[in-house]
Amino acid sequence: MHAAEFGRVEKAYPGRDGRPAPPAIADFTLAIREQEFFCLLGPSGCGKTTALTLLAGFEAPTAGEILHRGTPVQGPGADRGVIFQGDDSLMPWLTARDNILLGPRIRRMPRDLQQERAERLLALVGLKDHGHKYPRELSGGMKQRIQIARVLANEPDMLLMDEPFAALDAQTRAQMQEELVRIWSGARTTVLFITHDVQEALVLADRVGLMRAGPASAIRDVLAVDLPRPRDRTDPSLVSLYRHIQGILAEEVAGREALP
Ligand SMILES: Nc1ncnc2c1ncn2[C@@H]1O[C@H](COP(=O)(O)OP(=O)(O)O)[C@@H](O)[C@H]1O
Ligand SMILES: [Mg+2]
Questions:
Q1: What is the rounded CA–CA span in Å between residue 5 and residue 55?
Q2: What pLDDT is attached to residue 17?
Q3: Does 58 sit in the ligand 1 pocket, CB within 6 Å?
């Protein structure tokens, strides 16, 4: 069974003035394996967020089928934890620990288990000694890690991440990428990570799905990144993959510009 499957999925948003708009994605087919780190990569506006939103269950497809562990997606669920770009949805009046425990508390998890889970997750995201701090006392990277811990507290079997590090400075971003790979290998969830940054995809992914330029975008290619972790950005195999993908993306963008 796959973690998620898109079968010939189409999403057309309603056009302005009720006129039909071309679909954002069309004939979009992709299977994501259990526990893999999958990066969806493509030029801006090609429909990456659309694909994630459909799997998250926030929107319904206009055609095709989306399965999560073999079951059709009917709506959002804690089994698919979502983190958006620059997500700043931590409650400012709650400590990092209490933010992490929001989900477990809503589900009335026994108190001793709650504390255990909070401590385990704080350690997992490298913030063992910061649980008592409020969001305003945490840096951007730390807040992002608490955000991840908060989603993981619901024990999702998939993490859906939409350009989560795009708003961070380059150094924090590189740090968070390493951190995320470490967290992922500890948590053993499937990750669908969206980015338009080729290097980010290559540092993170087991496999990279390359999307065509929109409209009516679909997967153009899926490439395996069989390189040991942590990855060295200057590794010749990584650099050669980088060039290969940049070439394809340039072709896609040029193709779109050539459209009438
Ligand atoms: N809620 C929406 N309503 C109408 N059009 C949308 C909506 N969301 C996205 N789109 C359009 O769908 C296309 C794909 O957008 P998106 O999925 O956000 O791309 P990406 O995440 O790759 O940048 C774009 O043309 C965008 O304008
Ligand atoms: Mg997007």
A1: 9
A2: 80
A3: no
